[in-house]
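Reviewers of the previous submission asked for a worked example of the structure-prediction workflow described in the proposal, so we include one complete record here. The input consisted solely of the amino acid sequence. No template or homolog information was supplied to the procedure at any stage.
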Amino acid sequence: MMPTGATAELTEQDVLKAFDYEATVEDPMLTVAEIADALAKHFDIEVGNEVIRCRLRAMESDELVASEGAGDSTIKWTALVAPRLSDEVLVDAEAAEGEFERGETVSLDELTDDLKD
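From that input alone, the workflow returned the following structure tokens.
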């Protein structure tokens, strides 16, 4: 299913980032209203619930999210994948790759011990 109109403006990454900010291990499920609130709060994205529902259904077809419940008002959604890293974070992650193997890192325990000394 190819999104059109307002749905096309709401990206999969936007939705996945909303889950990243609001879902927890203890409560990984979000309602459409909670996703809308997260999009507005964290990313200044204002879209209607139906746009979010359409995007979620398309993402569910692609196995990016899953739903449970019945009826639009009681359906909760969970992300099955994480959002892509931003270019800036990806560069930092790639630069840090191998630091542990080369002994260039210090564990939190070691750092705490050093601060106590």
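Residues 85-117 form one domain. We consider this example representative of the routine output the project will generate in years two and three.
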